[in-house]
Amino acid sequence: MQLIDGRHVAAEIRREIYREVENIKARGKKVPHLVAVIVGHDGASETYVAHKDKACREVGFESTIIRLEDTITEAELLEEVDRLNRDGSVDGFIVQLPLPGHISESKVIEAIDPAKDVDGFHPVNIGRMVQGLPCFVPATPAGILELISRYKIPTEGRSCVVVGRSQIVGTPLSILMSRKAYPGNATVTLCHSRTPHIEKYTREADIVVLALGKPGFLTEDMVKEGAVVIDVGTTRVPSKETRSGFRLKGDADFDRVAPKCSYITPVPGGVGPMTIVSLLRNTLQAAKNR
Ligand code: GUN
């Protein structure tokens, strides 16, 4: 069994990006600039945005956080998006989700200029991804592909079961794993909350991707010997062993599942660290495209 070390790979990619930024500076060009918009005071969103800001600074990007109160109207937020679309100093921006209930997330996402949509959530970017055209791929699926590729895990002709059909992870990953490329060329099954007997599918799978957010969902009887398990789950569960009183738990029952695997991503330290570097990569690409 080999652990897929997302922290190590993410650090390597941050160094690669840092070197590219040094190069950009040496040529007297403007460094990439990412803006994150956060609406309201959701604790998890605050943490994510703070991590994104820190990661930007570490690789030499310019980073701006725009904080808006959750009393903002949809029209006002759309105006802010429009301002960022037109702001020449901004290479890419994200609007952190979830948004307050009175604001339509899809309207906001559709208002973002696809060329600055470094989250890869705009229908134009999703459509281009489906057609295999150059686009911004959402950060978590992009991070998973990068891990598979850096560990040289074979995917062609393999069966890949994705559990979870979210717009951010499961759905795009299912498309990416089935396209004619590496990583890809897999036979993909997308399981979700209405799939009866998910174990029937996971037991036959060469590659299992878990993105459902149910800690310990995948047990050892649900995977075959030698399977590759990619665990996107990060649920905070109470813990006596940490100062915060919480720890992150993945969707796999790690201690029991890992011995059966050829490769497995730990939680934390697997997919998580890759997500932010994928966002940095998309931002670097956005800056280069301009
Ligand atoms: N909320 C949870 N994950 C994400 C993400 O990748 N991007 C944005 N904008 N919001 C999120």
Task: Describe, in plain words, how this protein is organized in 3D.
The N and C termini lie far apart (43 Å). This protein has helices at residues 6-26, 43-59, 74-86, 105-111, 123-130, 139-150, 170-178, 198-202, 254-257, 272-289, and strands at 2-3, 33-39, 62-68, 92-95, 159-163, 187-191, 207-210, 227-231, 235-238, 246-249, 261-264. The chain folds into two domains: 28-113, Leucine Dehydrogenase, chain A, domain 1 (Rossmann fold); 139-271, NAD(P)-binding Rossmann-like Domain (Rossmann fold, 3-Layer(aba) Sandwich). It has a six-stranded parallel sheet with strand order 1-11-8-7-5-6. A three-stranded parallel sheet has the order 3-2-4, with helices on one face. α2 (43-59) crosses α10. By secondary structure, the protein is α/β, with parallel strands linked by helices. It is built from ten helices and eleven strands. The model has no long low-confidence stretch (mean pLDDT 98). It binds guanine. Guanine binds next to β4.
